[in-house]
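#lab-general

N.A. 3:47 PM
ok so I finally got the sequence cleaned up, no stray characters, all 237 residues accounted for. can someone with queue access submit it? mine expired

B.Y. 3:52 PM
send it over

N.A. 3:53 PM
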Amino acid sequence: MIKVDRPAPRADATRMNWWGILVSFAYVFGFIAVAQFLLRAGKLSPSVTRKIVHIGVAHWWILAMVFFDRWQFAIVGPAAFIVINLVSFVVRLFPAMEHEERSRNLGTVYFPIALLICVLLTWGGPLPIWMGGLAILVLGWGDGLASLVGEAQRTGRIVVFGNPKSIAGSGAMFAASAVVALVFMVLFAAPASGLLGSTVLTVLSVALVATLAELVTPFGLDNLTVPIVTLLFVYLV
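B.Y. 4:20 PM
back already:
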């Protein structure tokens, strides 16, 4: 297994961590700005721009793995965006990342809360950092594509705990989660075992657990449950 549980100490560690904070804010605000432009230009609908931000921001974890070696710095961005996203939800500061129905849910606030929890469990806790990346990108790509496919496919719907769900959307969630899990397993875990069958089984199990978490979670709380459940499941298996 590639040892990336904690970044190796660097002589310029403090400088890199500060740069990480600057790059993090530039990266996230850059995605929001592009989504805002596309929305105002009439190129994309709010539901699409919202998911562009959702998927794009999930990749922040990769930047974080490059820049941060201390949890005290890694939590700055997620903590700040809990407040920023809450303000945006209340006053619609960034319409491109908000749901058209203002009272729909607090999903945009739950996302940075999930990031904060995953950072504390990895950089600041006992879990490997790469597992946090797997969990967050499962949320980004899996939940993001599930929403886009589900909204585009109006047939084949089921109701789970009072919430309408699309079979096609759940299929997209499973497929995207499996791809993300496979990439991370190959990069960080599979070489240790050398067992193709074991890796495939783990990948499919992770995708299934993430899909079920998204399927049964209401009120936008899947932005919390999907990454946290996925992270803990990967760690256990």
